[in-house]
Design a protein that fits this description.
Shape: globular
Number of domains: 2
Strand order of the largest sheet: 1-3-2
Oligomer: single chain
CATH superfamily of the largest domain: Metalloproteases ("zincins"), catalytic domain
Number of helices: 6
Helix content: 40-55%
Length: 189
Amino acid sequence: MTERDYTVQVLRSRRKTVSIQIKGPSLVLVRAPLYTPQAELRRIIEENRPWIESHLEKAARQEETTRQEALSPQEIDELANQALAWFPPRVRIFADQIGVRVGRITIRNQKTRWGSCSAQGNLNFNCLLMLCPPEIRDYVIVHELCHRLEMNHSPRFWAAVEKVLPDYRQRRKWLKTEGQAILARMTAG
C-alpha cells in the first residue's frame, strides 16, 4: 500500500479519551482531551498509522465508486415513480397489521433520511429505498408506522417494531452498513 497524503485535524474538548475518525479520503479527525500533550497525540497517531492508512484507502475507494455510480436526475425520477407505485400498498398492509391510520404518503429524494412520520400520520419515504431489497423497504415502513404508536425510539417503540418484524435488528444493521453507499449516490457528481 502506498502512503497517502492526509491532513490531521485535532479537536480538543472535555472528553476523557482520544479517538480517531476518518472523514473522507484525506482527513483524519483526532478528538482529544483538552490538555493532552502534542507529543502524546503524535505517538497515538503513529501507533495507529496502519489502521488510519487502511481506512483512508477504503474511503478513497468508496468515494471513487460513488462518483462512478452517481444517479442522474432521470434515474432519480424513475426511482420516485417506482416508489410511488410500491409504497402505498405495502403501507396499507402493515398499517392494518399494526392497527394505525396514516395520512399522506410522499416520496422524496433525501440525502440523509430513509423515512419520516409526522404527528399527523403523514409518511415520507426516500426514493433511494427502491435500490434496497424489499425486506429493507418493509423495515422502514414498519419503523415509520410504529411511530404512530410511539413518537420516539423508546423500548416500547422497538417492541412494537419487533412484534411485526422479529428480525428487525438484522434489517436495521443492513441499512446502516449498506445504506450509506446508496445515500451517497444521491449526493455524488
